[in-house]
Amino acid sequence: MASDDRARGYWDRLAADYDRSMRLLGGPLPRTCELVAREVGPSDRVLEVAAGTGLFTSALQTVAREVVATDYSAAMVEQLEARGRREAWSNVVTLQRDLYALGFESGAFDVVVAANVLHLVPDLPGAIDALLHVLRPSGKLLVPTFLHAQNRVARLSSRLVGLTGFPSPRRFDERSLRAAVERQGARVEHLEVVHGVVFPIGFVCARPPVCST
């Protein structure tokens, strides 16, 4: 499975204006960034998938030993690198990578972060499996995700946003987000809904499946 090239083009076009769009939709982001950062320790090597323009990377690099920040959109990676230069990041590596072809060894990371991307991926089980594959057995999977089906306002807003060409193949509420992660064997340790004016975010912290011996 590979990511949808049409969706990639959408994010390439949006990259320069992405931060501005988050002024309306990103109400829950500051609190969500706090929740993500508190799960990361100073010795952790962190992989961030779908890093976009670096809204979460900015928080992660203050607490982690190393952050490998990736996105499949070349234009997003350019914006990510520009933010890194502005903020003088010293422990962040930026790469253009597809979620389904990350190219890292099994268990390479202490923490894997995939923020606001699970509702966008074409193959949801395959995406979660790819994230778990590169996570060490005692690591943490952090997947804060917009909940387009959490309430009436979110459902209506999601339909309106869809008219703009927004490439979202699924709409989560907190229960379906938890279920999607648990179906792949991960163990959800914490789920918190961070409310916003338009879309809430479901913050999920999960552990990898327990390997049988």
List keywords for this structure.
single chain, 213 residues, alpha/beta, 8-stranded mixed beta sheet
- Compute the number of helices: 8
Strand content: 15-25%
Helix content: 25-40%
**Arithmetic mean pLDDT:** 87
Distance from N terminus to C terminus (CA atoms, Å) equals 29 Å
Order of helices and strands: HHHEHEHEEHEEHHEE
| Count of DSSP strands | 8
What is the overall silhouette? Answer: globular
Poorly predicted regions: none
Biggest β-sheet strands, sense, barrel: 8 strands, mixed
Query: Rounded to an integer, what's the Rg over CA atoms?
Result: 16 Å
Structural class: alpha/beta
Describe the structure.
The chain has 213 residues and is an alpha/beta fold. The chain has helices at residues 5-14, 18-25, 29-38, 55-60, 74-87, 124-133, 152-162, 174-183, and strands at residues 45-49, 66-71, 92-96, 109-114, 135-142, 145-146, 187-194, 201-207. The protein contains eight helices and eight strands. Strands 1, 2, 3, 4, 5, 6, 7 and 8 form an eight-stranded mixed sheet that branches. Helix 5 (74-87) links the parallel strand 2 (66-71) and strand 3. The model has no long low-confidence stretch (mean pLDDT 87).
